[in-house]
Design brief:
With about 280 residues, the protein is an alpha/beta fold. It has helices at about 15-30, 50-60, 75-90, 100-105, 130-135, 150-155, 195-205, 220-230, 260-265, 270-275, and strands at about 1-5, 35-40, 70, 90-95, 145, 160-165, 170-175, 185, 210-215, 235-240. The strands form four sheets. It has a three-stranded parallel sheet with strand order 1-2-3, with helices on one face. Strands 4-5-8 form a three-stranded antiparallel sheet.
Length: about 280
Amino acid sequence: MFRFAPSPNGQLHLGHALSALLNRDLAREADGRFLVRIEDIDPGRSLPSFEAQILDDLAWLGLDWEKPVRRQSEHLGTHEKALDELNRRGLLFPCFCSRGAVKAALPKGAAVDPDGAPIYPGTCRELSAGDRARHIRNGDPYVLRLNMQKALAEIGRPLTWTEIGPDGKAKEIEADPTAWGDVVLARRDVRTSYHLAVVIDDDAQNVSHVVRGKDLYHATSVHRVLQTLLDLRAPVYRHHRLILDKAGKKLSKSEGAESLRTLRSNGKAPADIRKLIGI
């Protein structure tokens, strides 16, 4: 089982086309199944109009997928149940620090996570139950973080995942979840996150192969922690090359990457898209 899982917060670009086509092509080669999942857990940015455009672009590329499409927003109760289980085991804690406060609490040159963000210094990790209750009672905004050291202590063994390289050969990769520190698993108003939702939905949909961009390679370490804690199946992973812009940066919706819809309107055909992305 393969899946392509876009977020409906913008239009698809060439990087999305590469991931979607690779997933469908690999599914065919493996005589497997291909799914599309809409990852719409961010209510402030996810729009039905973007979802409709995404599905239209995928159909234009010549893709077909099993119906119905799974929308993460329709399964938030499942995500919250998993979150509550982790909380019951004492693996979560509320953090009341803003991003600015986290950055201000760190010395210059402090370590950063694989995405380049400052690693959380643990400011709220040891707050007393009374202090936590006071903050919540006052309506202070917060996120729920995973106590990574406590989680790894509960697991009690090194974690690995199976990675398929560009040559098609499999190798075992040692996970390094400590590189991320105490990752955010939910907000007060949104009781899930990308990390939590993706492992739950992959398991629920029996996804056997996760094929995604190499920008998510290091996130797999966090996903292996959550899969192990929640007794979820671990897929095989394949992290493909990224499509870069003229400045050498990966294409991004937020940076205004040229969309598939623009390319379509300029006369490009699906075969042209394959040539542009090199498959």
